[in-house]
């Protein structure tokens, strides 16, 4: 039988599918242009390209599937190749043939499988063609050379002598279709398992080797026999430690098919020996959307709150490209839907951890049977409007995802006593994405989880804050069951306090028995007097028959200790009017101090992490100079940069037993002068009236 060779132009374009271009040698080829044995014997390299983060610490191996055994130069200059021929390696022939048995046959423009009458060769009329690539292969002239068949027909490249000089791939899927064409399926089957035996070469990524532009890198696998290789990422995929500002990781790459150069040269119309790495960028994010009753103009990762305030959170990630992952739900042919217990193919779980000071609001009402306070949606567009239901697919609990809520197991650290929320999206991913990647509109779209939490009475007061973290568990290796976990941002909620000491004006001795009210001058409760409910949360004072909510002062005495130290804790930044409503027994009830306390969050917007530093400033009493620094040398303004204000009071607030203990200078002195003057005037009036009455009596 006449021997036939496949002459292939191999392209390793920047996409995995730009793999091969084929040409059939002509009978009148110029022998002087044939590639020599010495040229065939020169070892070659394959260069993997990508972002530095894609390649850092990843290890790749190249397995030879078919070696070049001939070729032809374009002209005598030997600058480019017109064609090369390839033969399948004996030790992988069975593997490649078995892979073809699992793949759909090649179809023409009318969506029909290739039939014997359009396959070259003799004696194919009697072959019955079924819907598999293997049957097409056995009916072709390449029946003993499966790698040649893949190049010639499976990749869809037309012969160069048929006019397709730009080597266009006419049937396999493009990057925009998520690599999910026939070639993609074939390469994943070829790389699956341990029976891919061949000449194995390895290369470890060096992110310091940059190309084209900053942040890019290459991996070079050298010493290769010229030919066609399958490139596999043998790393776990869980190798990038992201910073909080850039929470992202790359999975292990899906397998790639690429041909080397021959004698260091490319085909006339295509570069050889280079391929772009195909690993998936995994991202997870967490933001505070709404705080103090208002939506933020932009999502933030820090907020200041009153104890009792509700904070709206958003978790997000992207629908992954699951190409290369087998569906394992139900039967081998993956027809059965995932039932919630058997969906090991692709794992995607959001793990959200709330510290003890945050109460998860997982239900809208206490009687709800499901977790109605947690809403899970998938975007239908690249730029969805959060408020437009038409832009989102709302998933159903149990049907599409599973929720578990448990106590944090940590015994040390910031999350002791906290709550762990898991949102397992694997069910929806495996039913909707795995095995259905080609043309799938959801791949790359946002997955969004919304819920709220209440800052409770266990909140950490002061600089340290109340953190809330998220991480994402995901499948990270296409041909295995391994998973990775990527940490996301850790937003923090801060709440503040201030304290003061009651003292006697005469000698600064501690006083007890005073009562104070507090009114918010700005923020969500602006203009309202505040009190605490039975949960320890700040709320406006209740309405009465004659006054509206927040109009009646509440007299605080229970927040003071036996030495007269008052602490108002769990407050957001802002201004508060603090007024003494009852003086200690034995002290002037007509002279009670009042001050405006300003809490300024100075650590806001501090990078790289949230910072709870703040300043507390007391105004002077408007009438009496009864507010002084707690420590000698201090001022009425104090910066809090570590710990919290409960370490000590910040100012003394004084009470006087009589007028002589009050200051006699400044505004207070004038006030005292006015009081004394009024008393003297009153006395004079009384004396004058008395005298007039006496003289009138004498005249009678």
From TrEMBL:
Q: Name one Pfam family in it.
A: SpaA
**Key words, A-Z:** Membrane, Signal, Transmembrane, Transmembrane helix
User: Looking at the record's lineage, which domain of life comes first?
Assistant: Bacteria
**InterPro entries linked:** Fim_isopep_form_D2_dom, Ig-like_fold, SpaA_PFL_dom_1
Transmembrane stretches in the record are 664-689
Domain SpaA-like prealbumin fold, first and last residues per copy: 498-602
The reply to whether Transmembrane helix figures as a keyword in the UniProt entry is yes
Q: Which GO terms describe its biological process?
A: carbohydrate metabolic process
Q: Which SUPFAM superfamilies match?
A: Hypothetical protein PA1324 (SSF117074)
Renumbered to this chain, the signal peptide range is 1-29
What NCBIfam families does the database record attribute to this sequence? RrgB_K2N_iso_D2
Q: What is this protein called?
A: Peptidase
Q: Which organism is it from?
A: Bifidobacterium oedipodis
Q: What is the lineage of its organism?
A: Bacteria, Bacillati, Actinomycetota, Actinomycetes, Bifidobacteriales
């Amino acid at each position: 039988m006449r021997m036939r060779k496949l002459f292939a132009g191999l392209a390793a374009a920047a996409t995995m599918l730009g793999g091969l271009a084929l040409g059939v040698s002509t009978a009148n080829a110029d022998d002087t242009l044939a590639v020599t044995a010495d040229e065939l014997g020169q070892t070659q390299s394959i260069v993997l390209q990508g972002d530095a983060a894609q390649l850092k610490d990843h290890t790749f191996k190249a397995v030879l599937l078919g070696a070049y055994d001939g070729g032809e130069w374009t002209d005598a200059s030997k600058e480019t190749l017109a064609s090369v021929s390839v033969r399948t390696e004996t030790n992988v022939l069975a593997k490649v043939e078995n892979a073809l048995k699992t793949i759909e046959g090649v179809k023409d423009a009318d969506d029909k499988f290739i039939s014997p009458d359009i396959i070259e060769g003799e004696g194919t009329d009697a072959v019955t063609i079924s819907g598999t690539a293997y049957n097409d292969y056995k009916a072709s002239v390449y029946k003993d050379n499966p790698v040649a068949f893949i190049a010639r027909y499976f990749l869809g490249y037309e012969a160069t002598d048929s006019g397709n000089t730009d080597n266009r791939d006419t049937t396999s899927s493009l990057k925009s279709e998520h690599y999910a064409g026939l070639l993609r399926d074939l390469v994943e089957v070829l790389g699956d398992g341990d029976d891919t035996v061949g000449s194995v070469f390895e290369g470890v990524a060096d992110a310091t080797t940059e190309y084209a532009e900053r942040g890019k890198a290459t991996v070079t696998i050298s010493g290769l026999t010229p030919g066609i290789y399958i490139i596999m990422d043998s790393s776990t995929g869980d190798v990038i430690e992201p910073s909080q500002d850039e929470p992202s990781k790359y999975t292990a790459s899906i397998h790639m098919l690429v041909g080397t150069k021959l004698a260091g040269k490319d085909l006339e119309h295509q570069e050889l020996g280079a391929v772009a790495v195909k690993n998936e960028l995994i991202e997870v994010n967490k933001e505070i959307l709404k705080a103090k009753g208002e939506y933020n103009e932009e999502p933030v990762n820090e907020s200041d709150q009153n104890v009792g305030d509700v904070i709206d959170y958003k978790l997000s990630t992207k629908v992954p490209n699951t190409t290369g992952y087998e569906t394992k739900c139900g039967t081998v042919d993956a027809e059965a839907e995932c039932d919630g217990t058997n969906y090991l193919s692709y794992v995607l779980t959001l793990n959200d951890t709330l510290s003890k000071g945050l109460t998860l609001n997982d239900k809208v009402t206490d009687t709800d049977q499901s977790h109605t306070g947690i809403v899970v949606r998938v975007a239908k567009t690249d730029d969805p409007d959060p408020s437009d239901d038409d832009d989102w697919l709302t998933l159903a609990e149990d049907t599409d995802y599973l929720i578990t809520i448990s106590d944090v197991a940590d015994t040390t650290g910031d999350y002791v006593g906290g709550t762990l929320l898991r949102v397992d999206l694997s069910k929806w991913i495996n039913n909707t994405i795995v095995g259905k990647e080609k043309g799938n509109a959801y791949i790359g779209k946002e997955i969004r989880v919304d819920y709220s939490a209440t800052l409770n009475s266990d909140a950490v007061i002061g600089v340290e804050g109340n953190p809330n973290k998220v991480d994402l568990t995901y499948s990270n290796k296409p041909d295995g069951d391994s998973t990775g976990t990527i940490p996301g941002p850790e937003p923090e909620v801060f709440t503040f306090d201030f304290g003061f000491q009651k003292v006697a004006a005469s000698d600064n001795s501690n006083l007890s028995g005073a009562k104070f009210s507090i009114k918010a001058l700005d923020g969500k409760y602006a203009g309202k007097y505040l009190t605490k409910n039975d949960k320890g949360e700040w709320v406006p004072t209740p309405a009465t028959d004659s006054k509206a909510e927040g109009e009646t002062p509440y007299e605080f005495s229970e927040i003071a200790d036996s030495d007269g130290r008052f602490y108002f804790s769990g407050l957001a930044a802002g201004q508060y009017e603090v007024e003494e409503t009852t003086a200690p027994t034995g002290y002037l009830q007509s002279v009670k101090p009042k001050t405006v306390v300003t809490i300024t969050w100075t650590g806001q917007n501090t990078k790289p992490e949230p910072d709870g530093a703040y300043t507390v400033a007391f105004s002077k009493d408007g009438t009496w100079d009864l507010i002084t620094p707690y420590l000698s040398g201090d001022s009425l303004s104090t910066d809090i940069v570590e710990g919290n204000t409960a370490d000590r009071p910040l100012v003394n607030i004084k009470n006087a037993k009589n007028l002589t203990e009050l200051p006699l200078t400044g505004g207070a002195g004038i006030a005292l002068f006015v009081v004394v003057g009024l008393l003297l005037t009153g006395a004079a009036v009384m004396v004058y009236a008395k005298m007039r009455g006496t003289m009138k009596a004498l005249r009678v």
